């Protein structure tokens, strides 16, 4: 039935971020509600799918989970082609991975399509005791017209959708 099909919105989404921050875990939790303790590094990229009903519209997420290591970075622009959204993940217990957010914003600016929507996720919220990146780091500041320590020039042409907390995803999927 064509009517039903036309109301499906396909949202190609790419997950990026440094190595070991939890990109694959976020994708697994969002699409299969699973979590794996044991680390399994992603080779090149993997595909995940999930559909959500949002305000009466069905959104079919086609999620490309990429590998954070440098040797695979040259492949990412291929996945970004035709993407609607990108999710940058960092690990709240790793300052270095938050620095990586700056790198990835620049990467998206240089390689992402126009109008790409960007969400930033601070992952591993359960490890609050080892937190290295303060919650304020990503708050919008009127003064700088940017997000905390994030260079506003990096977000100029893009829309940061939400600074969602994946700890919430851990319990129930949230539509962004
Ligand atoms: P990726 O390299 O960015 O894809 O990272 P992974 O998703 O493979 O996760 C790296 C490691 O961190 C794995 O051992 C996961 O089990 C662990 N991990 C991922 N997310 C969380 C989280 O929210 N909390 C905790 N405590 N560990 C996590
Ligand atoms: Mg991975």
Automatic annotation (TrEMBL):
Transmembrane segments: none annotated. Keywords: GTP-binding, Nucleotide-binding. One of its GO terms (molecular function) is GTP binding. It comes from the Eukaryota. This is RAB22. It comes from Mytilus edulis (Blue mussel).
């Amino acid at each position: 039935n064509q009517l039903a099909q036309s109301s499906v919105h396909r949202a190609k989404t790419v997950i990026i971020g440094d190595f070991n921050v939890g990109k694959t875990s976020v994708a697994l939790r969002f699409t299969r509600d699973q979590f794996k303790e044991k680390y399994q590094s992603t080779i090149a990229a993997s595909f995940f799918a999930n559909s959500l009903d949002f305000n009466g519209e069905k959104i079919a997420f086609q999620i490309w989970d990429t590998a954070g290591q440098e040797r695979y970075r040259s492949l990412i622009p291929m996945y970004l082609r035709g993407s609607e959204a990108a999710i940058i993940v960092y690990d709240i217990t790793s300052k270095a991975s938050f620095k990586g957010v700056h790198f990835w914003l620049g990467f998206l600016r240089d390689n992402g399509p126009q109008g790409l929507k960007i969400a930033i996720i601070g992952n591993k919220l359960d490890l609050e005791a080892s937190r290295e990146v303060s919650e304020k780091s990503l708050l919008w500041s009127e003064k700088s017209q940017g997000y905390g320590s994030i260079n506003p020039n990096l977000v100029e042409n893009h829309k940061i959708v939400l600074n969602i907390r994946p700890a919430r995803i851990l319990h129930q999927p949230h539509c962004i």
